[in-house]
Records
---
Amino acid sequence: MLKWLLMIIAALVLAVVLFWDRVVGIPFWLEALGILPWIRRLDPLDKWLPAFLATVIALYAIFHETLWKHWRRPKLRTDPVPNCIAIPVYVKMPGDYVGVVPSFQVRLVVKNEGAERAESVEVYAAALKEETDGVLKPCEWFLPMNLKWANEDATYTGISANVERVCNVLAIWQPSPHDKPPHALSHAPNDFEYGSKAVVRIHTVVQPSSFSSVVFPGSYKLDLVVAARNAENQHIRLHFSFDGRWFEDQPQMFSAAVMVWTTVEGAGSRHSHRAGIKRRF
């Protein structure tokens, strides 16, 4: 705040030096506009000054805490570039332990650009929509719920000022016959080949018995809400499309088989980024 105050004072001094000939003519402008005669009617000013100062002091006493909190409040921002990284995962399917499986993870980086710590920060997956032939259709089988924060599998976390945290959003495992759920899924394509085609898993806090977090090849939009107890919500749309192919090479995977990008709205910003053009590895 002191920096901004010094900048304002410096700008005023510079303006006076550069435009002194105009500044000294201000009284004549005020006279021509009829403002000076109106000011003279306020004489004597000693009757008005105490009332004005009392009003300013009262307003400060009432609102200074609110203004101070608003100035220093946490400001959550998401990196427009999705964090796409290869991470081996331990997988345990019902009745059969698989072990370490290669995977690619798509994660959301959330940073607190405010001056105070953001409390109870969460990322909520509000809706999933599939795009077919340019038509966007809600996936009724998807159950909205929170996502997991990386490295702790927690629903809520705190983010200190100028610190960022990573939230797990999507996972793509190397195709395996063990990926097949124990029962048929209503939203699965007919005769889907689990052993040769990959699926996307949304990192929901729990795995529903309906396996609604399992997404099959296609083009989708996942609506996310980044929220905190003491910060404004930010609405993000994660766009992803994939065809079920698997590549060991990470750049090839995110250019030939998978495309991920985001559009972010909230706190006066809107931007988009395609991970297939510039990836964050």
---
Amino acid sequence: MTIVTLSRNSGIPRALNVGFALARGRKLTWTSSDNEMLPQCLATLSSYLDDHPQIGLVYASHHNVGLRTAPTRKPPFNIDVLRRGKNVIGPCFMYRREIAELVGPYDPECLGAEDYDVWLRMSEVTQIASIPDLLYTYRHHAHSMSARCPELVERSRRKAMAKAAERASRA
């Protein structure tokens, strides 16, 4: 394992870009320090990608703890719901490195919705699939970015949607 320490907090998107540039795997994922991948998470997501070479991104259901406690069961992927602004993929996912390289790095200007921006870009170049397994624990608390900075997250989500609409208009 390699531990990378950045000299200052430059935000999640930049940290992810640094980490993934150093990573050597063919499949990528990440998690926040306050959440937990369950023991079978990585193997299940990785096996799914191995068994479905046409899929570039797979995601799974998760348990909620803290302010919300019900499991979130993910329905089959629906591109229209994603494009209308709902981050249907959520916190439990894995994708192929070649797809990440194709769509480019996380956008630091989409802080708080950096994942949603990447999902939109990935949806334009690959198939996305959902599996029903509960593989992750997501903590809802008052100190999360979405709880502390909802306006920033909403601005970033709208920016990601505007970028997607611009790409679609050029296609």
